[in-house]
């Protein structure tokens, strides 16, 4: 079933929070949703790389990259690994690269922008901590839904019709 965020906002007005508009849709899946897994990192995608190698069925990785415009936190190889491991999608508060390949990958991907440079890998970052951007706090275990209309968050799983 496609996820339509305006319909979910209408159906669950008391539950959903709407993330401020800022993201572009880059992935092969235009709409996606699932349980939130958070990564907090700045110009180091080591934890993102670790997480895409784990089973992600029914999950969406929310990456707080501090809105950095100096390097990409996701590229084609990590996106393909995430898709292979069943991740529903990845939302990056920062940049991605290899956009043409990611657009063909069966994975939802939203990010602020693109940047051709990869990040350093220093092993820095935090997994499953609350992160805040776009006027919303993303908590591990809550739910996120995204499409071309925007991104919404709910404390509980929503029925998608």
Automatic annotation (TrEMBL):
E.C. number: 4.1.1.112, 4.1.3.17
Cofactor dependence: Mg(2+); a divalent metal cation
Reactions performed catalytically: 4-hydroxy-4-methyl-2-oxoglutarate = 2 pyruvate; oxaloacetate + H(+) = pyruvate + CO2
Superkingdom as given in the UniProt entry: Bacteria
Binding partners and assembly: Homotrimer.
Functional summary from the UniProt entry: Catalyzes the aldol cleavage of 4-hydroxy-4-methyl-2-oxoglutarate (HMG) into 2 molecules of pyruvate. Also contains a secondary oxaloacetate (OAA) decarboxylase activity due to the common pyruvate enolate transition state formed following C-C bond cleavage in the retro-aldol and decarboxylation reactions.
NCBIfam families in alphabetical order: NOT-MenG, PRK09372.1, PRK12487.1
PANTHER family recorded: 4-HYDROXY-4-METHYL-2-OXOGLUTARATE ALDOLASE 3-RELATED, REGULATOR OF RIBONUCLEASE ACTIVITY A
Record-given protein name: 4-hydroxy-4-methyl-2-oxoglutarate aldolase
Organism whose genome encodes this protein: Alkalimarinus sediminis
Gene transcribed to yield this protein: rraA
